[in-house]
């Protein structure tokens, strides 16, 4: 059974690192610094690094690995992590004894397991952690994590994680966290498209979108898309869900591929994936995903 923890424990101050300072990593770094940890940080974009200079020490990955006890990898994917870990000047070649790496990407669990095995050969613990809560949760320090990997390393570093989380779910061995994240995203993004489709039906029938959302939220049809995405980002006119359609397409595509490898039917998730692929072909890769509501009828 997955172990869920939410009670905060007193954390000894650590020297920690964050690599990738975008929508998620920036908030994580700020909350670690706020908790009193010494934070080393890095991002390939100079402008992004400059935004965090007041709260973190800018340190390249190899040097960071030699100085930190815990490093959080908040980069696009496994390929980027593999490149940072590898070689004579890579992170693993320079790792401090007892280093724990947390992979916060949304990635193929098969690749994740290979990276964890690679790290283990250098006596470095490598845990995969799917995040939920979005950029707002990273900013507020209210992320929830679904984790896989070394349980002892998790227990040892849990107080550090609590600087930016409210709930932690340790689900099993390496790959379990990223597997759960793909399942999670398949559900979340499919729900969002269903509510989009329902909204178009309601408006076509002359029912105001806000009224439809109120009715859905009053009954068993409610979900995160209806309770938060539509009120906060669509009905508000802000269109600021802070994630690209590219990300949804990547995540759902990986979930569908994983289901197929397992020999499972994935017709409903496959339909979600097809819509997202159409959006990419329509040139919407870099568009905020809340805009899918405006575009769905044309896909």
- Please report the first level of CATH classification, the CATH class of the largest domain: Alpha Beta
Give the N-terminus to C-terminus distance in angstroms.
41 Å
Looking at the overall shape, the CATH architecture of the largest domain is: 3-Layer(aba) Sandwich
With strands numbered from the N-terminus, the spatial order across the biggest sheet is 1-9-8-7-6-5-2-3-4
Rounded to the nearest angstrom, the radius of gyration is 20 Å
Global shape:
globular
How many domain units? 2
Largest sheet: 9 strands, mixed
The averaged pLDDT comes out at 96
Q: How many beta-strand runs?
A: 9
CATH domain fold name of the largest domain: Rossmann fold
| Helix content, binned percent | 40-55%
CATH superfamily of the largest domain: NAD(P)-binding Rossmann-like Domain
Q: From N to C, what is the helix and strand string?
A: EEHEHEHEHEHEHEHEHHHHHH
Helix-strand category: alpha/beta
Q: Can you tag this structure with a few keywords?
A:
2 domains, alpha/beta, Rossmann fold, 13 helices, nine-stranded mixed sheet, 299 residues, N-(1-d-carboxylethyl)-l-norvaline Dehydrogenase, domain 2, globular
């Amino acid at each position: 059974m997955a172990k869920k923890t939410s009670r905060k424990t007193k954390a000894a101050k650590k020297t920690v690192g964050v690599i990738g300072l975008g929508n998620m990593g920036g908030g994580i770094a700020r909350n670690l610094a706020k908790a009193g940890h010494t934070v080393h940080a890095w991002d390939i974009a100079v402008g992004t690094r400059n935004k965090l200079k007041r709260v973190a020490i800018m340190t390249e990955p190899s040097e960071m690995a030699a100085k930190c006890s815990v490093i959080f990898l908040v980069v696009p994917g496994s390929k980027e992590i593999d490149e940072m870990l590898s070689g004579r000047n890579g992170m693993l070649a320079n790792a401090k004894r007892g280093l724990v790496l947390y992979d916060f990407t949304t990635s193929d669990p098969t690749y994740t397991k290979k990276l964890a095995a690679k790290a283990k050969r250098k006596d470095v613990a490598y845990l995969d952690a799917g995040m939920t809560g979005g950029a707002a949760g990273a900013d507020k320090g209210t992320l929830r994590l679904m984790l896989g990997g070394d349980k002892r390393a998790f227990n040892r570093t849990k107080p550090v994680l609590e600087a930016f989380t409210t709930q932690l779910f340790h689900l099993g061995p390496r790959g379990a966290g990223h597997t759960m994240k793909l399942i999670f995203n398949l559900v979340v993004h499919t729900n969002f498209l269903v509510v989009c489709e329902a909204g178009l039906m309601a408006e076509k029938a002359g029912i105001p979108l806000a009224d439809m959302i109120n009715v859905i939220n009053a009954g068993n049809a409610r979900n995160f898309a209806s309770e938060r995405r539509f009120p906060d980002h669509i009905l508000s006119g802000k269109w600021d869900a802070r994630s690209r359609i590219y990300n949804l397409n990547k995540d759902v595509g990986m979930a569908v591929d994983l289901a197929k490898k397992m020999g499972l039917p994935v017709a409903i998730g496959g339909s979600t994936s097809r819509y997202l692929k159409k959006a990419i072909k329509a040139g919407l890769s870099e568009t905020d995903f809340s805009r899918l509501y405006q575009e769905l009828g044309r896909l």
